[in-house]
């Protein structure tokens, strides 16, 4: 798995600590603060997957204000607006795009029972993200 460079990676570097003062959240339809924490290229599923990981504190099951439906709409938006642009900028053709939200920073692949996490997978098709429900 590789961490990739580019405009999203610069956002991720500036957001290395989601609680850090001065880190601007990315605009999403719900208005909740969403901060990019990591961009990964993952070939472990047997094909290239582009993974964009975000910290979204308002999805917390303990006092969060963003609903599951709002988070899903935000993830759709991020796929459409950020992931597809990133693919084009870097001439990538991933089989899937995975957008993930966690209410706190969680290392990739780690389990944290206290964390609230959402994951959505999409199939890129031209200028569209097609949701791939499992």
Roughly what fraction of the amino acids lie in strands?
25-35%
Rounded to the nearest angstrom, the distance between the terminal CA atoms is 23 Å
Helix proportion: 10-25%
Count of helix runs: 2
Structural class determined from secondary elements = alpha+beta
| Low-confidence sequence ranges | 5-21
Q: What average pLDDT do the residues reach?
A: 87
Keywords: Signal
Protein name: Acetolactate synthase
Signal peptide: 1-18
Structure, explained:
The chain has 134 residues and is α+β, with helices and mostly antiparallel strands. The chain is globular and about 40 Å long. It has helices spanning 7-14, 68-89, and strands at residues 2-3, 35-42, 49-55, 96-102, 117-125, 128-131. The model is unreliable at 5-21 (pLDDT under 50). A 6-stranded mixed β-sheet has the order 1-2-3-4-5-6. It has a domain at 10-56 and 69-76 and 97-134. InterPro entries: DUF6497. Residues 1-18 form the signal peptide.
């Amino acid at each position: 798995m590789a961490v990739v460079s580019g405009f999203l990676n610069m956002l991720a570097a500036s957001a290395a600590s989601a609680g850090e003062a001065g880190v601007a959240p990315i605009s999403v339809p719900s208005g909740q603060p969403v901060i990019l924490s990591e961009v990964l290229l993952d070939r472990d599923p047997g094909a290239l997957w582009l993974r964009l990981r975000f910290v979204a504190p308002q999805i917390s099951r303990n006092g969060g204000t963003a609903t599951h439906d709002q988070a899903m709409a935000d993830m759709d938006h991020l796929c459409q607006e950020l992931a597809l642009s990133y693919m084009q900028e870097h001439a990538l053709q991933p089989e899937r795009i995975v957008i993930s939200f966690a209410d706190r920073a969680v290392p990739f692949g780690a389990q944290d029972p206290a964390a609230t996490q959402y994951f959505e997978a999409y199939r890129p098709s031209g200028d569209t993200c097609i949701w791939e429900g499992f």
